[in-house]
């Protein structure tokens, strides 16, 4: 009976687990640039973070809005949910 070689299977599993981390590292630099953020934004505001609520899976930031710069809504506060 032929012996099963586990090295290629383990290597493939390692590469599959590593791939999302490499992609994240490549995108983080570009996402931090202001022109990228402006071109990919739904709304742009000037305001103050008035409250931050955290949990294990996400963070909710409450922003008190002073001025809408792009695509306004008729509200004075907005809630943003960030997943960790």
How would you sum up the global shape? elongated
Number of strands: 3
Taking all Cα atoms into account, the compactness measure Rg is: 21 Å
Mean pLDDT across all residues, rounded?
76
Describe this structure in words.
- The structure is a single chain.
- By secondary structure, the chain is α+β, with helices and mostly antiparallel strands.
- The chain has one domain (7-83).
- 37% of the residues lie in helices and 37% in strands.
- The chain is built from 2 helices and 3 strands; from the N terminus they run ααβββ.
- It has a 3-stranded antiparallel β-sheet, with no helix packed on it.
- The longest helix has 25 residues, at 7-31.
- The termini are far apart.
Give a short overview.
Helix content is 37%, strand content 37%. The protein has helices at 7-31, 34-39, and strands at 44-54, 58-70, 77-83.
């Amino acid at each position: 009976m032929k012996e099963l070689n586990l090295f290629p299977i383990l290597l493939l599993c390692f590469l599959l687990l590593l791939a999302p981390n490499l992609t994240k590292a490549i995108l983080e630099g570009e996402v931090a640039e202001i022109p990228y953020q402006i071109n990919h934004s739904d709304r742009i505001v000037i305001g103050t973070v008035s409250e931050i609520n955290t949990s294990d899976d996400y963070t909710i930031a409450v922003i008190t809005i002073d001025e809408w710069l792009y695509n306004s809504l008729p509200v004075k506060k907005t809630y943003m949910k960030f997943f960790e």
